[in-house]
Amino acid sequence: MRRIDPPRLVAATTAAIALVGIVSVLTPEMANRSDLVRGVLPQNWLDYARTLTLAVSLGLLWLSRGLARRKRRAWQLAVVLVIASTLTHLAKGLDFEESAGSLLVLAFLLKTRREFVAPGDPTSVWPLLQVAIGLCVVGPILWLHADGITASNDRLDDTASLLMGALAIRGFFLWLRPIAERARHIPADRRRAEQLVQEHGSDSLAYFSLRGDKSRFFSASGSSFLAYRVVAGTAIIGGDPIGDPAERVDLLKEFRRVARAKAWRVAVAGASAEMLADYAELGFKSIYLGDEAFVNPETFSLEGRQIRKVRQSVSRLAKAGYRVQLMRPDEADEAMRAELRSVSEEWRGNWPERGFAMAMDALFVYSDTLLAVATDADGHVGGFIQLVPAPACAGYSLASMRRRRETPNGLMEFLIVETIDWAKGNGVREISLNFSVFAEYLRADCGLLRTLLLKGDRLFQLERLHSFNRKFFPEWRRRYFCFERWTDLPLAGFAYLHVESLLTPPGPWAKQSTDLSAR
Hints:
alpha+beta; 3 domains; twelve-stranded mixed β-sheet; 12 strands
C-alpha cells in the first residue's frame, strides 16, 4: 500500500477546515449563541469576526498548496491562521464545532512540523517589508473610518479596502515564493558537461543542455547530468539526462528529492519515447508534446514531383546569385559577425528569442557549432542557419533560422538543402530540422484541437513551422512533456510556455530576454 505523504494530508485537512469556515460564514448563526455573544462583545464585533473568519479561511485555502509542497513559511503562517480561526469562530457565534476542528488541524500541524523543510526565497524579505509598511499606512485609514471619523467618505473607504486586500495578496505571494535559482557558471561543471555531451550526446537535444541560462545537476559519480531552469516554482528539465544510461533513473530520483526540498515541481520538456518507461517508473505522467523532424542526408533527394517546390526555390536562389558558405563561429571575421547580428536583429524585431529545449542562446560562443550563411551576388548576407552537433551519433540539430525580410522567398529552403548536401559529403548521418508542437494534430484532417491550433497560429506560428518541416518529407520522432502529478500540469505547462518565450508579448520588454545576436 502506498504511504500517504504527511504534508499532502496536512494540506488536505487544512483546505477542508478552510472550506468549513467559508460555509460557516455564509450560513446563518444559531440565534441563541449569537445573542449570548452580543451580550458580551461590542455591537459591531460579530460582523468583524465574520469578516475575519472569511479572510482567514481564504488564507488557509491558499496556504494548503504551499503545505503540500513542504514550504516552511506556509507551515508557520498556517499555524498563526489556524489559531486565529479558532478564536474568530468563537467570536462570531460560539461555533464550538468549527473551533474544535481548527484545534485538531493545529495539533496535526505541530505533530508534522519536521516535514516542512522547504525554505522561502530570501530575496523576498525586502519586498515583504514594503508590503508591511503599506499595510501599516492603509490599516489606520480603515480603523478611523470604522470609528466614524471619516464616515462621510465611503469612496476613500472602498479604495483603502481594495488596496489593503491587494497588499495582503502580494504579501502572501512573496511569503510563499520558493527559492528562485539562477544558472550558476562553474567552469569545472561546464567542462564536465561538455565532455559528457561529446561522449554521450546521441540525442538531438543533448547539446542544448549547454545553454548559459540552464543549471546542471550531476550524478554522484559525475558520469551523467541533466540541465534545468526554475520558473515560477517549477524546475523544467530540457530533454533527457545525458551520460551513463545506468545512472539516469537514480539521477532523476535524486534531483526530484532535491527539488522537493526546495518546494519545486519537476517537469521534463522534450522527453524521448525511449525514456518514457523510466519516467513512468518514477511516477511521472506524460502527454504528447509534438514531433521532431529528421532528414537523412544519404537518402534525401530533390527528385520527384512532391518536392518540386523546394527544388524550384533552390534553383531560383542559385540563379539569383546566392551562395552558401559553412563556417565555424571562430572563422567569422568581425565584418561577418556584424552582418549576422544585423540579420538576426532585423528578423526578430521586438519579439523575444524563442526556444529552450531546442534552441541556443548565442551565435559565436560555442566553437563546435556550425553556421550556414547565404550571401547574394554582391556578397551581402541574406540569411543564415545555426546548427549544433549531436556528437555521439554524427548528427546536427537546427538551432536557429534568420533572414532579411527583403530576401527572396525560399531562402531558408535553399540554406537547408545546401547544408544537407554538405552533410552528405561529410559523414553526417542525420539532421534534425525543427520541433513541431502538436504536429500529430496539425496533420489531422479535422478536429477541435486542430482548429484551435490554427486559430493561434498567428501568435505561435505552429502550423507555419510544421508546414515548413513537411516540405522536406522528414522522419518524425515523438517528444513528450512529463510531470509528477496531474494537478501540477497547469502551472508546469505555464512554466514551459514561459521558458520557451511563447507567452511573452512583443514590445520593448521583450529585449530583456537572452539576445542570440548579442554573442
